[in-house]
């Protein structure tokens, strides 16, 4: 049952007894970390996984275990997708649409975190452009391949609580750049995109949700000084303990990917549709300075989600 899982649950525990034979699932970011583990467990339970990655050579090496663990009928194919380039995004999406093979689940897993100020090839601030706009265009372009009963799962983060989106200055042209503010904006955008996508598609039986995987040591934190990361964990734990909460500990990668597969496969669509999930459950609305647990109201605001959709269309020059 969905309620039996929690923060320490692993992907294989969540999918125990689940047969995904005949299911076709797309996962972005399968060259490392959560993306590889997500693809592995899905293929191990019989799904055919289409794994998207910017560096196919790296992904080929990283996904050896995916192929080794694939159950009968399960498997993996790789496609090139650079979310920091709309030309790449559109080319990949167009190729998938031309192939005309539907999906049962799309997990928008890829992303970057707290990187120095830089721009995508299209001139967008890198975190917003990669984490949100790249997926926004990609998912909307392949939306016709999502059949009734299918789902979209966007990887967000507790980091959404660092900042709401800024629809007036998304590229930090007038705002001083701060790595975690930019990250927070992009992660809030991931949630709002799921909220609006769910609203637009649920009448056709397609649902969407966003998830926080937890605090995990992966390549995502490669831009962070280890000392800075340690200080952040100390502050988070101090705030959590002061508010009566638990000490935050790192999850393993299988524990981190568990909420993605729980949300995409195990939980009921009505339970997670248009929601933000963490630790294999739907998160509660919270306010306050503590970044541990829960979701901010602005990230689930329907009007905000609709406004972000319109702004995103304006930025990429394409309407969906």
Largest sheet, spatial ordering of strands: 3-2-1-4-5-6-7-8
> What's the CATH C level?
Alpha Beta
CATH architecture: 3-Layer(aba) Sandwich
Order of helices and strands: HEHEHHEHEHEHEHHHHEEH
Quote the average pLDDT: 92
> Span from first to last CA?
36 Å
For this structure, the CATH topology is: Rossmann fold
Give the helix proportion (percent range). Answer: 40-55%
Which runs of at least 5 residues are low in confidence (pLDDT < 50)?
none
Number of domains: 1
Considering the protein shown, what is the CATH homologous superfamily? Answer: NAD(P)-binding Rossmann-like Domain
Number of helices: 12
Q: Approximately how much beta-strand content do the residues carry?
A: 5-15%
How would you describe what is shown here?
The protein has 320 residues and is an alpha/beta fold. The chain has a single domain (2-314), classed as NAD(P)-binding Rossmann-like Domain (Rossmann fold). Helices cover 41% and strands 14% of the residues. It has helices at 11-14, 33-44, 56-62, 64-69, 86-99, 126-141, 179-201, 226-242, 253-256, 258-266, 269-272, 302-316; strands at 24-28, 48-53, 75-80, 103-108, 146-155, 207-212, 276-278, 281-282. The chain has an 8-stranded mixed beta sheet with strand order 3-2-1-4-5-6-7-8, with helices on both faces. β7 (276-278) and β8 form a beta hairpin. The longest helix is centred in the middle third of the chain and has 23 residues, at 179-201. It is globular. The mean pLDDT is 92.
Note the topology.
Blueprint: H1 11-14, E1 24-28, H2 33-44, E2 48-53, H3 56-62, H4 64-69, E3 75-80, H5 86-99, E4 103-108, H6 126-141, E5 146-155, H7 179-201, E6 207-212, H8 226-242, H9 253-256, H10 258-266, H11 269-272, E7 276-278, E8 281-282, H12 302-316
Parallel strand pairs: 1-2, 1-4, 2-3, 4-5, 5-6, 6-7
Antiparallel strand pairs: 7-8
